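User: Predict structure, ligand FE3-S4 cluster.
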Amino acid sequence: MPTRPTIEKARELGFCFGVRRAIKIIEKAAREHRGISTLGPIVHNRLVVARLNDMGINVVNDPSHGASPQLLVQIQERQLEIIDTTCPTVRSAQKAVKKLAESGFGIVIFGESDHPEVKGLLGWAENKAIATLNGEDLANIVLPNRLGILSQTTQSRLQFSEFVKEVISTVFPRVKEIRIVNTLCEETQKRQAAAVELARKSDVMIVVGGRNSANTQRLAEVCSPIVETHLIETAAEIEKSWLPGKKCIGITAGASTPDEAIEEVIARLKELAGGN
Ligand code: F3S
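Assistant: Predicted complex:
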C-alpha cells in the first residue's frame, strides 16, 4: 500500500497584519454605517470580497491599496466619508515617495505601473516618478541630479536588489546622488522565505490565493524554480494527477488568503491522497 504523504504548511502563510487590520476596520464600519463601498476590492481575494459583500459592503471600480491624494480629494468633493484602511507599510512607502518628491528627487519605483499600489505611489510623487521592472529603462531618459529608488511593498527582496544594481549601473555617473529607500514589506519577505524553505524539502508546492494577488503570484514565482508548484484559488482546483509519488506536499498562501481557504485545501488533499 502506498505511504500517505505528509502535508506541511509554511511557517508563515496567509493573512498578514495589514489585511487583518483592513478587514477589522471595514467590518466595524459595516456594523456602524450603511452604504459602504470599497475603492476596488479591499484585498485581492474573491472569497473575502464575497463575504464582505454579504455584509452589505460593495466594491466600486477604482483602485484601492493606497489611493493617490488626487483621488482622495475627488471623494471628499463628493461629500463622502472616507474610512482609510491603507496598510501602515504602504502608507510608509507613500510618505517616502512624497518626501523624496518634495526634496527635489526624481523617483523610480520598482513595480508594475498598472498595479493599484504603484498607481497610488505615482500619485503621491507629484509627477516626479516612473514605475518599471527594468532598470535599463532609465538609459534614455533625462534625469535630475538626485534619484530616489524604492519598491512596491510586496516585491521580492532579491529582485529589488538586482533592480537597484541595474539602475545604479545604468544611471551612474549621470546623477550626483542616489537614495535607496527600503519600502519592502517584512510580512511578505517572511512568507517568501518560509515558502522557499518549505519548497526545498517538498515534492510539490501548492500556493493558495487570488490569481490577481501580486504577493500570491510572487510566492508561486519563488517556489517554481525549486519544485513543481501549482497556484490555486480554491480546493476545487486541485488535480489528482499532481499527487502520485509525492511524499511531502508543501502549502503556502498569499497575504490575502483566508484561513478557511487554506484549511479547505488541506482537507481536500487529505481526501485525495490520504495525507496526515
Ligand atoms: Fe501591508 Fe504587507 Fe500585508 S504591505 S497589506 S502587511 S502584505
